[in-house]
Amino acid sequence: MKLAIYGAGGHAKVVVELAKQLGYQTICLFDERWQELDEAEGCQVIGGWAEMLSFFTTNTDYDVHVAIGNNSTRLSRLQQLQRLGLKLPILIHPKAHVCASARLGEGSVVMANSTISVGVSLGIGNIINHNSSVDHDVQLGDCVHVCPGVHLAGEVSVGDESMLGIGSCVIQGIIIKERVLVGAGAVVVKDVKSAEKVFGNPAKTP
C-alpha cells in the first residue's frame, strides 16, 4: 500500500509511524517547508501543496492523509482533496478500540489506546489522540482535535474545528460549539459558545 501525507511536523511523524503499522510500505510527505526538510521518520519530503496536487495527476494508486494539527487548515485541505475524488482512508491504530456502530468520517485518525464507543459519529478529519475516550452517542463535527488523555462522556456534541486540550474532560450531554478551545486539564460542566476559550475546573472563559 502507498500513502502520501500532507504535513511533516510532529503530528505527521506520529501518523507515519501509525501508517507503517497499518501496512503502508511506500510513504511520501508534502509540506510547505519542503525545501528545508529532507525527511521525517525516514520518509522523504518531496514538495508542498502544489507539488502534491501535481503528484496525484500520475500517482493515482496512492491514498492521502492530511496530518496538519491546525484544524482550519486541515479542513480546507481535506475539502479540496474530497473534490478531487482522492482516497482519504480512516487510520485506526491496532491498539485502539472502535465499536462497530461508530461512524467515522474519512481522513480521520484514531491513535493508540483510545476508545470510541457505540453510536458515536465523527465528521471528516478528526484526530482522536492517544489514551482518549469518546463515550456513547457523542457527535463530533469536522476536523475536531481530541488531544491525548481527553475523556468525553455520553451524548456530548462538539462543533467543527474545535480543540479539546490534553487531559480535559466533558460531562454528559454538554454542547460545545464550533472553533472552541478547551484548555489542558479543563473540566467542562456547561455548554460552550462558538469560538470561546475555556480553562480550569470548572471550565470558564478567562
Give the arrangement of secondary structure elements.
Blueprint: E1 2-6, H1 10-21, E2 26-30, E3 39-40, E4 43-44, H2 49-55, E5 63-66, H3 71-83, E6 91-92, E7 97-98, E8 109-110, E9 115-116, E10 121-122, E11 127-128, E12 133-134, E13 139-140, E14 145-146, E15 151-152, E16 157-158, E17 163-164, E18 169-170, E19 175-176, E20 181-182, E21 187-188, E22 197-198
Parallel strand pairs: 1-2, 1-5, 6-8, 7-9, 8-11, 9-12, 10-13, 11-14, 12-15, 13-16, 14-17, 15-18, 16-19, 17-20, 18-21, 20-22
Antiparallel strand pairs: 3-4
Keywords:
Trans_hexapeptide_repeat; single chain; Rossmann fold; UDP N-Acetylglucosamine Acyltransferase, domain 1; Trimer_LpxA-like_sf; AcTrfase_PglD-like; 206 residues; alpha/beta; Pilin glycosylation protein PglB
Describe this structure in words.
The chain has helices at about 10-20, 50-55, 70-85, and strands at about 1-5, 25-30, 40, 45, 65, 90, 95-100, 110, 115, 120, 125-130, 135, 140, 145, 150, 155-160, 165, 170, 175, 180, 185-190, 195-200. The chain is of the alpha/beta class and about 210 residues long. The chain has two domains: about 1-90, Rossmann fold; about 90-190, 3 Solenoid (UDP N-Acetylglucosamine Acyltransferase, domain 1). The relative contact order is 0.10.
